[in-house]
């Protein structure tokens, strides 16, 4: 309840009418107004002044409209070597006719599905932005992966974003993965905007028994992008979820990633790198909830920060009283390349069970000068030696991308960044 | 090949080297000995270009060029090699990748074609024999989890790969057991030729039984206070450094 000041930036926006999902929207709206926009006094947002940033950047708090993209634009945005299905969105609206190689993939625009359990995984009450999205999302996608489906090629969710009549883009995704199925999602954005825009995204993933889900994301949306995302996954017995998040730029980015381990022998993995320069600000808040015995979670986030960039990492691990024999590991390591770069890192473990293995650690330091000299003393140019060392640091995260061509694509992106701008 | 004239260097304002003079010619092996803290490792570091040291006076020419004017990587490309006293562990950088990058940058500087993967591997296999280093070790991250002996062998292996004209071995013998010492020395000896030179920095005479020096210099308080042949090393072995220290210190007080 932090809404003593002027009632908030989105109040008028919420008065406009949104189609369908009446009860869910009503619940979202109430919850949002209840929570209010976060201030720096809100514990969860104390290092990320998102409300101030939104107030400064958004002149037109209205919903951004869908727009056309050409097939050529879509094809140009697909990573080299990528062979799978492509689902295309503009400002969060699914562009069915632009989708490629979808084959028998079962999906539909969210606006056509009036009866989906949205909000049952990413609960509105947990975060004001999840609530705002639930109250006022416009479109998104519903994806259903049937039982025992093993989809070899990843599914690419490609979003084109552009501030137009409004600057607010609110996509919502509901993914259901059947029992024993395996699937990989890749999300990429193409920013076409030359004015600030705000993406407020919610992704809910319901994993089946023994399912294997991978979720890879690249965030490289430039100085006009303000983004908050809430991604939440429920994992049932014997299932595994792995997320790899690569953040390369953004004016202010806040990622809330939550995994609920609901069945024994489930495994949740969260990996991320943030390579920031300029004034980029990226905040990763992760949350793993161990509710049952014999589950495992692994987490590794690495940051390299140059110029006046800022990184925030907050990793919560809950181990409930019933969750005996939990294995939970968390690590956050940062390298600061400039005196003006800042990292705030905070591990947060709450453990009620008494027979568990949990570890966490965080480090923040500078580039190892001795290692740099060692490489130079063997004839390697200083810039390249730096790139080599930084890549060695960040590369560990990329190893968790199982798809070869996408890992190669990410590796190149990361190497280009490390070899040049740092 | 290498001429050092009146070299003074300090670290954080504390003078360490106070006027070193040394001339090294192609084909020669020079041993630099001296008690702890005499400046031996500093000399090696200054020659390789470690940034923490500030050269306050003097000059160093290497093959006619002003060595002190070159960045560390250019010194390496010109043919200076420093075998580190404490080789650095670099997780995530594979030994093989690292060496290939290094060699090709050195070759590019020298106007030679880059080595392709096949030629590189052939060369690697050949040089590996020299220091009896295992392929498995080289597929790991650079020096990570290597034993002390393996690290030192890896230094000499890198030296073999980079084919320097001036090798500076900084306490390469310290901490080695006799087998490792033999292997390392054997590698160094096989790499010796009439065209290259070696500076062996060591505290102990033992290494010089295996790598036989043409000249032995004793460094004390940042200066070369005594030079001789390998017999000098034996004398030091027998009598320790105290007699030299006393001689110099009493001279200084007179």
Automatic annotation (TrEMBL), chain A:
Signal peptide: none annotated. Residues 164-393 form the SUF system FeS cluster assembly SufBD core domain. It comes from Algoriphagus pacificus. InterPro entries: Fe-S_cluster_assembly_SufBD, SUF_FeS_clus_asmbl_SufBD_core, SUF_FeS_clus_asmbl_SufBD_sf, SUF_FeS_clus_asmbl_SufD, SufBD_N. Residues 16-155 form the SUF system FeS cluster assembly SufBD N-terminal domain. Belongs to the iron-sulfur cluster assembly SufBD family. This is Fe-S cluster assembly protein SufD. It holds the Pfam family SufBD_N.
UniProtKB/TrEMBL annotation, chain B:
Residues 2-246 form the ABC transporter domain. InterPro entries: AAA+_ATPase, ABC_transporter-like_ATP-bd, FeS-cluster_ATPase_SufC, P-loop_NTPase. The keyword RNA-binding does not apply. SUPFAM superfamilies: P-loop containing nucleoside triphosphate hydrolases. Pfam families: ABC_tran. Keywords: ATP-binding, Nucleotide-binding. It comes from the Bacteria. Belongs to the ABC transporter superfamily. Ycf16 family. This is Fe-S cluster assembly ATPase SufC. The lineage of its organism: Bacteria, Pseudomonadati, Bacteroidota, Cytophagia, Cytophagales.
